[in-house]
Design a protein that fits this description.
alpha+beta; Alpha-Beta Plaits; 4 domains; four-stranded antiparallel beta sheet; 11% strand
Length: 650
Amino acid sequence: MAIVKMSKFTLFTFESQKEALLDKLHRFGNVQFINLQEDAEEDFDFLMKDSKDQEISELEGELAKIKFSLDMLNGYVEKEKAIKALIKGKPNLTYSGLSEIALKAEWENTYASLKAMDNTLNNMKNDISKLHSEVESLEPWINLDCAFSDLKELNSSICIIGTLPKNFKDSFREKFDSEIPYSYVEILSEVKDEINMLVVVHKEYEEAAMEILKSYSFSKANLNYSGRPKDIIVDYNQKMQNIKSEEEKIKQKIKEFGASMEELSIVYEYMDNKLMKAKACENFLKTEHIVAIEGWVPTELVKEMEGLLESVSKDQFYVEFEDAELDDAKVPIMLKNNKLVKAFESITQMYSLPKYSEVDPTPLLTPFYLAFFGMMLADLGYGIVMFIVTALALKFFNLDESQKNFARFFLYLSIPTAIVGAIYGGFFGDAIKIPALINPSQDVITILIASMIMGLVQLYFGLGIKAYMLIRDKKYLDALYDVGSWYAALTGGLLLLAKGMLNLSPTAVSVSKYVMIAGMVLIVITQGRENKSVGARLGAGLYALYGISGYVGDLVSYSRLMALGLAGGFIGSAFNLMIGLLGNGPAKWIFGTLIFLVGHIFNLLLSALGAYVHTCRLQYVEYFGKFYEGGGLPFTPFKSKNKYVNIKNN
């Protein structure tokens, strides 16, 4: 259970064997290439950059078309229900099976049909949008009971339609009616702060009428229609309805292509793998006949890789393997743990992968994470529910590896949740009274002390890991200065603080005092040892000693183990109290059941989220700060992404 040892390889092979070699390495799935085109050493300056620009461009274009088809179908085809989809999972195919299906698929025809229908739908949407805009522009004039063309055919009069501010309505009518004798004004509609009206005047008074209209901020409407507004609107609405009917027919045709989704997904996976192989060449250097490749491979798989190379190139290649150096920051990090610890790798990855020179913190945080999460959620009923749900998911759902690890994560966490819940006597709050070893409502101090002790154990363990790493690297004095001094200062100080509780003898108290003083002195005189002057050393040492207050703060942080455990239990009990207030009868059975289910599901989710976040915080801030730096680069092997299909080796 550790960081996987890596080896760096340098490979020279013939250009003619490159495609077969890439195919084998892709199936091997345990190689990460180094970009020689960026990081090439001077020894390789006579080589040219390898590339497949044209093939990459073509494959990216084809992938874009397939992605368009899948996205379009996802928008119209009814999706499988979540439970059914999880049970079904992704299809499993071998590389040869994937290639066979992809090469036979007529995805270009599917794409062409879908693209044509998409263009038609877009045109229809534009047409509907235009018609809708026309209807909106006509609606203010719907009360006009004559055709627009009739307004233009009057011999002795002119017709004007337009809008006028509503606050000018009365003054305009008074002035217009008094000064323009041969006229007709009709208010057709009022919209917000404007009135829409029709004005008819004799041609002799056209100029005077226009002056009055202008003075009242009249805005003439430009409507290029011939029929009656009401008839035009009815006609346009009918056209929109017809277009929508055609839209539905096209959407039904699109849904008929739903059966092609799995085939399109397989083709996408196949094309994506081809693209990956083509892009891999952008890491290589070459001559006219030879290709130079560098990369990383797990040391334990070196022999297997050599056999793979021999199967492709016989003896027509040269390869050299070199163990990675501990202080090489470019070494990619791959973690290898058992099934239990692997479920907790996401916690480490969320913070940062370890450097190659560090230890994998995952197995070192797992037992603490289990214990802390259990203390924070702390309910037997919740633990049983979590266990059943995750166990059923693992049993009946076709999950990929990351999903399985996620389910296992909460499966494992359900066990300490149930155990601590049984100790506290919590079963869905206090829904069922069970005997408790510790009563949370009465033994708060006991739980607080237990939380502090758990925190102290983790802090001491973190310092111990730091000491191990220093001793491993043969830095024995550093282990004494940076860890031993803190053990002495902290242990002596804690014993002095707890002398009454522990009933220490005077001799033990005296020894504790001298141990604490010795530790503090050692901290002051050694923590600034990298500085040259005595003053700088003492200053840095005193500042380091001030860091003991940080340990006090770290220890206090573990009180959240008590606080969250009590909070979740009290919230659950509050829901049970609400049910009890309903009395007996139908109301209790109906509403009580509803309150119980909704309330405890809510409390379970909220408490689990709180436990997850705060347990992570204790690992990242209090624990990792004692020994862990992180910053490693993840190992990204050259293999299939399995986005739509789980690809298995033949």
